[in-house]
Amino acid sequence: MTGAVDEISETLETEIVEGILPPGTRLEEPALAERFGVSRTPVREALQRLSASGLVELKRRRGTQVLNPSIGRIVEMFEVMAELEAVCARLCARRASPELLATLHDWLERCEQAAESGDPSAYYDANRSFHLAIYKGSGNSFLAEQAELLHLRLTPFRRQQLRLPRRMRQSLTEHSAVVAAIEAGDGQAAETAQRDHILIQGERFGDFLAQFGARS
Amino acid sequence: MTGAVDEISETLETEIVEGILPPGTRLEEPALAERFGVSRTPVREALQRLSASGLVELKRRRGTQVLNPSIGRIVEMFEVMAELEAVCARLCARRASPELLATLHDWLERCEQAAESGDPSAYYDANRSFHLAIYKGSGNSFLAEQAELLHLRLTPFRRQQLRLPRRMRQSLTEHSAVVAAIEAGDGQAAETAQRDHILIQGERFGDFLAQFGARS
DNA sequence: ACTTGCCTTTGTGTATACACAACAGAAAAT
DNA sequence: ATTTTCTGTTGTGTATACACAAAGGCAAGT
C-alpha cells in the first residue's frame, strides 16, 4: 500500500483546514512518525505534499510548520481567489447548460435552508458546494482544479467568517445575483458579481482581524 | 548542505522546461541517483517537488514521468494563463507607477531589438522578462508567483512557437498595445489586450500541433 | 547581573537495506 | 499458433542508521 503517505497527508490536511492545527504549529517528523505508527520517510513525503498544496512551509534545516501568512498575504490570496472565481462565473454564463443551472439552483436552495435554520456549519458546506459547482461549470477542468486548490488554502481563514452577524444572509443575496447573471447569460455581470462576493470576504477577514491585535 | 535536492530539482526543471527531457520521459530513481551521485532519498524529494510544480507526474507504484498533458489540457492551461495575465495587466494599469512603465518600455525595446536581429532565443528571454514585469507590476506578489509558476509549466509547450513565421513581429505589436493601455490607465483595454495576446499563443499551439498528427 | 562561549540535545538531511508490487519474458498447455 | 501462467527482474514504498546543523542551556568570565 502506498496508502501511508496518502493517509498522513489527508489527515494533516483536514486538521490544518479545520483549524485543529492552527497556523504556525510546528510539525516534527519524529512525533508524526510515532503518531501514525510509521517511519519518518512517509511522513517527510506527506509534508512535502502538503507544502505543494501551500498548506505548510518547509524551511531548510529548520523544520516544517503550518503556513502562517501575513495579513497582507492573505488579502492578496483572497484577491486572486476573487479573480479566479470571477473568471469561472463568466465562463459559466457563456457555457451555461440547463444541468448546470439546475445544480446551481439546487445548492442555492440548500444555502437558503441552512441560512433560515441558522446553521453556520450546514451553510458552510452548501456554500462550498455552490462554489465548486461554479468552478466545474466553467467547463475548464484545469481552472476548476486551480480554483479548488486555492479555495482549500483559504479555508483556514474563511471558516470563522460565517460567525459574523448577518453574513450568511448577505452571502445568500450575493449568490442569487450571481446565479441570476449566469442564467441571463450576462458574463460581465456574473464576473463582477462573483468578484465582489469574494472580495467582500477578504474585507470581512480584515474586519475580523481588526477585532484583535494585528498579527505579523 | 540541503543543496542536494535543490540542485537535482533545479537541474531537472531546467531540462524539462528546455525540452531536453521531453514530455512522457520516464524518470527512474536509481538512474537519477547514480547520475547525481547521491542516494535515492534526495532524488525522491526532488521528484516530489517537481510534481508540486506540475512538471512531472507521480503515479503510485508506476514511477515518475515528465508530464504529458493532452492537447485539450494544454489549451485549458493557456486559457487560465490568459486570464491570469489579463488580471495582472488590469492591475498594472490601475497601479501603474513611473518605474513600472519605464521597466515595461525597457523590455519592450529589447524585444524589438531581438525581433529585428531575428534572434528567437533573445526574443524569448526578453519576452519572458516583459511578462514577469507585468506579473510583478500587478502589485500582488501572490498573483505574480502563481502567474510565474503557470508560465513555467507552459514553457515546454510555448518555446517552439517562436519558430513560426512572423510570430515575433505580431507578438511585438501585441505587447505595444498592452503597454499603451497600461500607460493610458485603461484597465479594461489592458486586460483584453493581454488576454488576447496569450489566447493567440494557445491557438498557435493548436496550429503547431495540427501540422503533425494529434497526440493523445 | 549580563554577556559570551561551549556543550548537549533535538531534529533534519542523506545513505543504506529490505519488502513488495508491477512489468516482461519464456515455457507449457490447449 | 495462441493464450495463459509462472518466474525473474526491475523499480518503487518503507524502515533504519548515521551525519550534521541549529537551537537551548549552562558555566565561566567580565
Could you characterize what this model shows?
Chains A, B: It comes from Paracoccus onubensis. Chains A, B: Residues 2-69 form the HTH gntR-type domain. Chains A, B: InterPro entries: GntR_C, TF_FadR/GntR_C, Tscrpt_reg_HTH_GntR, WH-like_DNA-bd_sf, WH_DNA-bd_sf. The structure is a homodimer of 216-residue chains. Chain A is mostly helical and 216 residues long. The first copy, chain A, has two domains: 2-66, Winged helix-like DNA-binding domain superfamily/Winged helix DNA-binding domain (Arc Repressor Mutant, subunit A, Orthogonal Bundle), CATH 1.10.10; 71-210, GntR ligand-binding domain-like (Four Helix Bundle (Hemerythrin (Met), subunit A), Up-down Bundle). Helices cover 73% and strands 5% of the residues of chain A. Chain A has helices at residues 3-17, 29-36, 40-53, 71-95, 98-116, 120-137, 141-158, 167-183, 187-210; strands at residues 26-27, 56-59, 63-66. A three-stranded antiparallel beta sheet of chain A has the order 1-3-2. Chain A binds chain B through residues 2, 41, 44-45, 48-49, 51-52, 60-61, 73, 76-77, 79-80, 83-84, 87, 140-143, 146, and chain B through 2, 41, 44-45, 48-49, 51-52, 60-61, 73, 76-77, 79-80, 83-84, 87, 140-143, 146. Chain A binds a DNA duplex (30 and 30 nucleotides) through residues 1-2, 4-5, 28-30, 38-42, 44-45, 60-64.
